[in-house]
Every structure is written in structure tokens, then in C-alpha cells.
């Protein structure tokens, strides 16, 4: 409730039109198909403590959202900066003129990860909003995630596209892009 107005106010207060920043909206999830949506951060925290909500994909893909630093978010009252980490794929609000998603990554796999990596390469600040949140509701698996899980060919193609993406980053950003390749190889 009130997320749209909060985002608009945050965009103005943080002078987003004049700076390169991505506003991170912390993501949570429920395993229940019906949920009374929390009306405030305090209510959401209570639901987290009771176990009716969880940090997004903590049990399946914790690397995707862990850099949001949920323990810090619990008590944050002002936006805080986080650093890029491998496989980070938060939900963000950015200026219209930000880098577009790489069109190689359609379907399932690496669309948000590559986008955040590109934002980081362009030195965007990654700012977590202290009073914003979204909740992912359960749904049937998508056709594309099923293809990813069942097809070695799909996973192989995705790996090839990832390698091409890294090479493209290296060409565009030079030595600054080495951290992405190094991070990928250490996984």
C-alpha cells in the first residue's frame, strides 16, 4: 500500500533524475495463496517473525537477493547503499535512460542478473529503500523455467550467452569489468 507514492517521493528526495542510481525494492514471498497484505513495514516484519513471509527465494536462490542486506533493512530508516555481488537480481526502479535489458536473455535465466551487472559497470549506485517492499505470490512454474530445468541444451545455450555477455562487458568497460568474470569463475 502506498508504494507508488513512496517511490515518487523517493525519486524526488534522492534526486534520481540527476544521478545514476537504482532504487532497490526489497522482495519477500509467501507460500500461501491467500494473504492479508501488510499495510506497513512493521506489519511485514511481524509476518516475517511469525513465518508467514520470507525473504525472496531464500530457500531456492539466496544469492539473488541476499546483497539487499535484509537484516539491515529491518531497522533502516534511510536509504542505504549496497555493493554488487555475483547473481544479484533485485527489483529496481531506474531512470528511463538506463541501460536496457540485454535481449539475449529472454525466457528464464540471467535477465535481471545481467541488467544489474551492466548498471554496476556503469557505476550506478544501488540504493535500498527502507520503507518499500513487494511480495511475490506463489504461482505455477513458467514454461521457460521448466525448459531450463529439463533441457541440458537450454542450460548450455544460456552459459554460452553468459560468456558472450562477459566478453561484451570487457570490450565496453575494459579492466573494470574483470571483477564480473572473476566472480563468475569463482562460483
UniProtKB/TrEMBL annotation:
Q: Name one GO biological process term.
A: protein O-linked glycosylation via mannose
The coiled-coil regions, if any, are: none
Q: Classify the main location.
A: membrane
Q: How does it sit in the membrane?
A: Single-pass type II membrane protein
User: Does the keyword Glycosyltransferase feature in the UniProt annotation?
Assistant: yes
| Subcellular localization, as worded in the UniProt entry | Membrane
From which domain of life does this come?
Eukaryota
Return one GO MF term: metal ion binding
Q: Name one GO cellular component term.
A: membrane
Q: State what protein this is by name.
A: LARG2 glucuronyltransferase
> What is the source species?
Oceanodroma tethys (Wedge-rumped storm-petrel)
User: What does UniProt list as this organism's lineage?
Assistant: Eukaryota, Metazoa, Chordata, Craniata, Vertebrata
Per the record, the gene is: Large2
Amino acid at each position: 500500500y502506498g508504494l507508488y507514492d513512496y517511490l515518487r517521493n523517493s525519486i524526488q528526495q534522492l534526486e534520481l533524475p540527476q544521478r545514476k542510481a537504482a532504487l532497490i525494492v526489497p522482495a519477500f514471498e509467501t507460500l500461501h495463496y491467500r494473504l492479508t497484505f501488510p499495510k506497513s513495514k512493521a506489519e511485514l516484519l511481524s509476518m516475517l517473525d511469525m513465518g508467514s513471509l520470507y525473504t525472496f527465494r531464500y530457500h531456492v536462490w539466496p544469492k539473488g537477493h541476499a546483497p539487499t542486506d535484509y537484516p539491515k533493512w529491518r531497522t533502516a530508516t534511510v536509504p542505504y547503499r549496497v555493493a554488487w555481488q555475483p547473481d544479484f537480481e533485485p527489483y529496481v526502479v531506474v531512470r528511463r535512460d538506463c541501460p536496457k535489458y540485454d535481449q539475449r536473455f529472454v525466457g528464464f535465466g540471467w535477465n535481471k542478473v545481467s541488467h544489474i551487472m551492466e548498471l554496476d559497470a556503469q557505476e550506478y549506485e544501488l540504493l535500498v529503500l527502507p520503507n518499500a517492499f513487494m511480495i511475490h505470490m506463489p504461482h505455477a512454474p513458467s514454461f521457460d523455467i521448466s525448459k531450463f530445468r529439463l533441457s541440458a541444451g537450454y542450460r548450455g545455450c544460456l552459459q554460452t550467452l553468459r560468456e558472450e555477455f562477459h566478453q561484451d562487458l570487457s570490450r565496453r568497460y575494459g579492466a573494470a569489468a574483470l571483477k564480473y568474470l572473476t566472480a563468475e569463475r569463482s562460483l
